[in-house]
Amino acid sequence: MTAVDFRKITLVVLLQLWAATSLRNSGWLKILTVSYFFGSFLNHNLFLAIHELSHNLAFSTPVYNRWLGIFANLPIGVPMSVTFQKYHLEHHRYQGVDGIDMDIPSQTEANVVTSVLAKSVWVISQLFFYALRPLFLNPKPPGIWEFTNLVIQLTLDATMVYFWGWKSLAYLILSTFVGGGMHPMAGHFISEHYVFKPDQETYSYYGPFNLVTWCVGYHNEHHDFPRIPGNKLYKVKEIAPEYYESFKSYRSWSQVIYMYIMDQTVGPYSRMKRKVSTVKKDK
Predict the structure, then answer these.
(1) Which partner for 215 in 150, 230, 248, 274 could form a disulfide, CB atoms 3.0-4.6 Å apart?
(2) Cα separation, 229 vs 214, whole angstroms
(3) What is residue 1's predicted lDDT score, i.e. its pLDDT?
(4) Within 10 A of 260 (CB to CB), how many other CB atoms are there?
(5) Using CA atoms, how far apart are residues 165 and 231, in angstroms rounded to an integer?
(6) Where are the alpha helices (H) located in the chain, listed in sequence order?
(7) Parent domain of 132
(8) Across the chain, what does the average pLDDT equal?
(9) In this structure, is residue 272 part of a structural domain?
């Protein structure tokens, strides 16, 4: 067993499901407020736990990590754990390769999202872009594990609606999408690879939110050593500071969102891209 503790994941899952059932008779304003200021942090924590599990950092046996990822997926409301792993591992293997790395915004996004208003809407909706972009640009046939993820997730969703009503399920889904939009936690989507400094492709964040995001902020370190659990990556920086201290880094994800929206020279196109012809894709 490594540093990704299934007990912590279980605690967050149960706490979020408890919150969802407790809000079953609440007004929509209260549900939205609790989603933004509470549930979003829990679901984002689970999303980044799934990120760790996609690298098999909880168990030495990969299938156990996959099952735990499906379990961590439950409060997120929509099935994504198994599919995320497929695309995320390609992001590591083919970082920046246009047409393969689905972390790269599409050309349509780059052409349309140029103004402050458009970038604000894009930030609010960025989880939709992350979810839909692969379906159009690099679709993959689903397998038995995607089907398993889907059935288990729909079973949980249907159970929530049957016993506690639509508001409980709405709370879970709202917690996912408001937490992935104009939210301090969501700043990591932009901070990790959007180029604010010429010639630097990946950026780390050394702020306090690492405590609740499985240290995803140590992103240069993570790409160098993807098999090291997030909460151990600080040791990489301590052991080899000469490789990391010269890089630009962040202390605030909120500041990154602000810079992204307000800086007219930055947008979805602000990514280092490589042509697919320059990389030999695995068969």
Answers:
(1) 230
(2) 8
(3) 39
(4) 22
(5) 38
(6) 6-22, 28-34, 40-54, 62-73, 81-93, 107-112, 116-124, 126-137, 144-164, 166-179, 187-191, 219-224, 233-239, 253-262
(7) 6-267
(8) 94
(9) no
